[in-house]
Amino acid sequence: MNQETAQNKYLYVGRKLPYHQIMNPQEIPSTSKIIQAVQKNKVTYQCFRCGNREQNYFCSHFCARCSSMCTYCRKCIVMGKMTTCTKLIVNELDMKKEDQRGGLEWDGKLSPQQKEASLKVMEAVKGNTDLLLWAVCGAGKTEMLFEAIDVALQEGKFVCIATPRVDVVIELAKRFQTAFPKTPIAILYGGSEDKWEGQRITISTVHQLMNFRRIFHLLIIDEVDAFPYNIEEHLHWVVDEARTKTGSTIQLTATPSTKQQHLAHRDKIEYAMVPARYHRQPLPVPDFQWIGNWRKTIQKNNKLPAPLMKWLQSILKANSSIFLFIPTIDISSAVEEAVKKLTVKTTSVHSQDPLRHEKVSAFRNGDVSVLITTTILERGVTIKNSQIAVLGSDEEIFTESALVQISGRAGRHIDYPSGEIMFFHNGISEEMVRAKKQILQMNQLGFEKGWLDKK
């Protein structure tokens, strides 16, 4: 079988492809089905590419293709318009690779807690069952997956690691290409150059899974608590569609939803918990500091509350880097100007900042001492020696999940396993209390398991 034939073999298997985009319709396998992309059930519509059922995301217009009124889905329109006259080619043939070999060449060593979780993931893969991997920030979740993925490859399975964010896809791709150097890996996100041609491992954004149907035997969802996966119900449908009916789904998170926590604590779902980091030091615990109406202080006096400025000065004297999280973009410039009064290199970033990546790189390289940021950096960025401040930690944007993730920026490196975390507030919120409680509970469990050194 030549390379072109091998690629064509997987062109349609496990795919959902618009019929009008197919160059050679005669190549469509006889096992494929043709379905209507947007279907009407009595009075409601559903998009069968993205799973959307929210009726306010459907619009009707006169269609030049079918010369009649057509309804289309706005939910996934950035990936191409799906209408009631669009035909999708779907093929859910459950097949495995003939080449049933692993490819793991990672020479690292798992800690006892990582090994225990890794074994549970392997059991789920072998038994085709689902699992929640609940591991604290910095626990090394990716490394816990390697052996289970290798087992899946040995069984001829197709593996996908999906995450809500493009930057995480790129970071994971580097790590998997190092761990599985001889294994074909597809890297899929909006604008990526890769195409899926039956690669053993796929690393993609969750949205790219809209192009697949019943192909992945092992589907790993990273950061299940992150936007937009945590609020877009149709993306859960997309994940279910992409996995084989008898496959395994592994969900990864450091901050599971309240519902997931309740189900886990009551043993209603299979889960593995890793409450400790590899360096055997407890998670840094946040402290609370009341600062009153800090917005008024900034607006009237162009300065930050005295307790916050005093804290910043003490941390800077110790030559540490500082993440200063703020609740809204509109105060970014004012806070930056106030911090600069300390004559320290400071910059600010937010989701609309075109220089965000360059500024984060400067912070990572030590060219910036204080990075003022919205929750856009609550996860994904790790600095070797950093301390954390949250301004207005009682505001609505700072949920339990966000505050736990933010706290997880501190103490990750073995050379700097501790760190200061300060929540500056105008009244202690329930979310603040929950976040601190969750961190304390993880530390307690880590001590009970013997995975943390005694105080």
What would you say this structure looks like, in words?
The protein has 455 residues and is α/β, with parallel strands linked by helices. It folds into three domains: 8-90, no CATH class; 112-274, Rossmann fold (3-Layer(aba) Sandwich); 287-449, Rossmann fold (3-Layer(aba) Sandwich), CATH 3.40.50.300. It is 29% helix and 22% strand. The protein has twelve helices and 20 strands. Helix 5 links the parallel strand 12 (216-221) and strand 13 (243-253). Helix 11 crosses helix 12. Pfam families: Helicase_C, ResIII. This is DNA/RNA helicase. Keywords: ATP-binding, DNA-binding, Helicase, Hydrolase, Nucleotide-binding.
Write a concise keyword list for the protein shown above.
12 helices, 3 domains, alpha/beta, Rossmann fold, 6-stranded parallel β-sheet, globular, disordered N terminus
Compute the average pLDDT: 92
**CATH level 1 class label of the largest domain:** Alpha Beta
Fraction of residues in helix: 25-40%
Strand order of the largest sheet: 10-11-9-12-13-8-14
Q: Spans of 5+ residues with little confidence (pLDDT < 50)?
A: 1-6
Question: What is the third-level CATH name, the topology of the largest domain?
Answer: Rossmann fold
User: Helix/strand-derived class?
Assistant: alpha/beta
Would you report the number of β strands?
A: 20
CATH superfamily of the largest domain: P-loop containing nucleotide triphosphate hydrolases
Number of domains: 3
Main beta sheet strand tally, sense and closure: 7 strands, parallel
General shape: globular
| Distinct helical segment count | 12
